[in-house]
Amino acid sequence: MISLHGPHGPVDHGVLKAGGGLPEHAVWIDLLDPTEEEARQVEAATGIRVPSRAALSEVESSSRLRRLKNGGLSLSSPMITFDRTDLALKPLGFVLTKEHLVTIRFADLRSYETVKTRVAEHDGDCTTSVDIFLLVIEELVDGLADTLEEMSSDLGQLSTRIFDFDPAAKPGSDNGSRGSPKRRDLALRRLLRSIGRQGKSLAKVRASLLGLERIVPFVKDSCPQALGFGEEESPRFDTLSRDIASLDEFETRQSETLQFLLDAALGLINIEQNNAFRVLTVVSVVGIPPTLIASMYGMNFKHMPELEWAYGYPYGLALIALSALLPILIFRIKGWV
Questions:
Q1: Alpha helices in 71-180 (DSSP H)
Q2: Cα–Cα–Cα angle for 12, 14, 16, rounded to 5 degrees
Q3: Are 203 and 314 members of one domain?
Q4: Chain segment 153-185, per-residue pLDDT in tens
Q5: Is residue 323 part of a domain?
Q6: HSE value, Cβ hemisphere, 13 Å, CA-based, for 91
Q7: At residue 250, does pLDDT exceed 50?
Q8: What confidence tens digit (pLDDT) does each residue in 37-96 have?
Q9: Which range marks the domain in which residue 294 is found?
Q10: What is the mean pLDDT of residues 129-142?
Q11: Long-range contacts: 7-14, Cβ < 8 Å, 24+?
Q12: 3-state DSSP assignment of residue 60
């Protein structure tokens, strides 16, 4: 889908669809998941080659940040979709010249809608292609900041779930009765899945920040005269660079917190495993003395003193019970069970 925008808001693009030139005052050409036909229409109207999705997905810096022969710039970066229910990375492209800004995207990003509203309402500088480019980058950075703030809140809730994890109580019970191993296992699995989802989301935000972190200084340092901006735009580039750097630091702290929570969850799992092994160890130790006594009195020798006792059988049973209870008592005194 093609949408055209100028300093005063949306521009009628019927002429472009009919195969004519670009409408007057159209500065920003926004392509949402463009078809080959739409890309050819833009190329015919502006003389700007629209990069394909495959080209925008290239990972090397030389492909993501390029100077064009006409003095413009071709820029690309992965960008999250800002949909927390299905956070994904999609390629995002910019072709920036002195006269026009062409944006290519493959997801409906709310930051772009905000920019279009700001341009229509004259909220900020939006006269030139560079002005609109800066507006887009600013809104993308704001969107990434909002996403990181939401993730920080999610990590706080996740931390509460981990450190308030009580394996000795059933979910929803107030009597402290011990939950089943299956319930505890499912709870720990949910924690690990939550940590994994947060880790994947942070990795995608990190990739988006890295792309913008490379784009901003590249545009600032690349042919400012050819793009038609001067010293008045320089503070905006500097502010964007500082904002991205601060978000990068914040994301690093979030990643460290997530790693700490992962270690804590794995520690809980180790405790659960140790508890299981401890139970098995206690059972095996408790079962050894009775087995020894029963095997000793089960030997079929002719001369056994206890064989003729009237109370030999109760004596044997009592000795077996005592040999089983004594280790349990010792374990209880030492606090092992």
A1: 110-120, 129-163
A2: 105
A3: no
A4: 999 988 888 888 765 555 444 333 356 777 778
A5: yes
A6: 19
A7: yes
A8: 888 888 887 788 888 888 888 877 777 888 888 778 889 999 988 887 778 889 999 988
A9: 276-334
A10: 89
A11: 7/119, 7/122, 7/126, 7/127, 8/120, 8/122, 9/116, 9/119, 9/120, 10/116, 10/120
A12: coil
What phi and psi, each to the nearest 5 degrees, are found at residue 180?
-75, 155
| Cα 16 from chain centroid (whole Å) | 40
pLDDT band at 243 (very low <50, low <70, confident <90, very high): very high
- Note whether 63 and 145 are same-domain residues: yes
Q: What angle do CA 127, 133, 209 make, to 5 degrees?
A: 155
pLDDT at position 323: 87
Strand order in the sheet with 28-32: 9-11, 2-6, 28-32, 101-105, 89-96, 73-80, 65-67
What tokens does 46 get? Answer: 């502006």
Residue scoring higher pLDDT (276 or 150): 150
Q: Are 216 and 237 in contact (CB under 8 A)?
A: yes
Q: 16-37: per-residue pLDDT in tens?
A: 655 556 777 788 888 998 888 8
Q: Are residues 27 and 141 in the same domain?
A: yes
Say if residue 137 is in the same domain as residue 280: no
Q: Using alpha carbons only, what angle is made at residue 122 by residues 117 and 128, rounded to the nearest 5 degrees?
A: 100
- State residue 189's pLDDT score: 87
C-alpha distances out from residue 141 to 208, 246, 282, Å: 9, 11, 58
Cβ 64 vs Cβ 84: under 8 Å? no
Helix (H, G, I), strand (E, B) or coil at 78: strand
The CATH number linked to 192 is: 3.30.460.20
168 in a domain, yes or no?
no
